[in-house]
Write a structure and sequence with these properties.
heterodimer, A: 112 residues, mainly beta, 60% strand, globular, B: 116 residues
């Protein structure tokens, strides 16, 4: 079982829809990151969370530490939101403390 | 503006050549990382460094080597490139302490390497 599980793997939405991507993890963490990767490869860090909720524009990220679960929401989705969204946790144990453990990513396609 | 820079963005090179992929950051981050990513696949950590003169191998075995002589610079070298090294290589950096503002991760734009 992967230490970081994301769902869904693939998601197709119509422009304007509300989108939710989920992430569950099974290890102790110091922080959780939501990353965005567009075709062409560059990765942008959208959020870093250790508790609660953060909002940036149309993006909202939440984390429940007790349940080891995080969600990324996109309101009023737009074709330019089409990308791969990656959940990654920052471990707080072992020799590789602080390194990221990645989920497999969610490929989002927003149709006009 | 603080950032992380990777060069070159694209590289096509012949088998057997020695190559160095450059990565520099201006954020004062202690930790730096190299990831390898094949198209449509996950990121795999190949090297990391927690500070000057500190380098460690990551989860994915790689024939590449790294050095960390200066805090801001973390180059990756392939002594003899082979077609199996064709991939995208992403550099990243992060701060060490959760209580500091620079704790987040920042990724470079990546180097897309093709070995022919």
């Amino acid at each position: 079982k992967n230490e970081v599980e994301q769902s869904p793997q693939n998601l197709t939405a119509q422009e304007g829809e509300f989108i939710t991507i989920n992430c569950s993890y099974s290890v102790g963490i110091s922080a959780l990151h939501w990353l965005q990767q567009h075709p062409g490869g560059g990765i942008v860090s959208l959020f870093m969370l250790s508790s609660g909720k953060k909002k940036h524009g149309r993006l909202i990220a939440t984390i429940n530490i007790q349940e080891k679960h995080s969600s990324l929401h996109i309101t009023a989705s737009h074709p330019r939101d089409s990308a791969v969204y990656i959940c990654a946790v920052r471990s707080n144990y072992g020799g590789s403390q602080g390194n990221l453990i990645f989920g497999k990513g969610t490929k989002l396609s927003v149709k006009p | 503006e603080a950032d992380i820079y990777q060069t070159p963005r694209y590289l096509v090179i012949g088998t057997g050549k020695k190559i160095t992929l450059e990565c520099s950051q201006t954020m004062g981050h202690d930790k730096m990382y190299w990831y390898q990513q094949d198209p449509g696949m996950e990121l795999h950590l190949i090297h990391y460094s927690y500070g000057v003169n500190s380098t460690e191998k990551g989860d994915l075995s790689s024939e590449s080597t790294v050095s960390r002589i200066r805090t801001e610079h973390f180059p990756l070298t392939l002594e003899s490139a082979r077609p199996s090294h064709t991939s995208q290589y992403l550099c990243a950096s992060s701060g060490s302490f959760p209580e500091l503002a620079n704790y987040g991760y920042t990724f470079g734009s990546g180097t897309r390497l093709t070995v022919v």
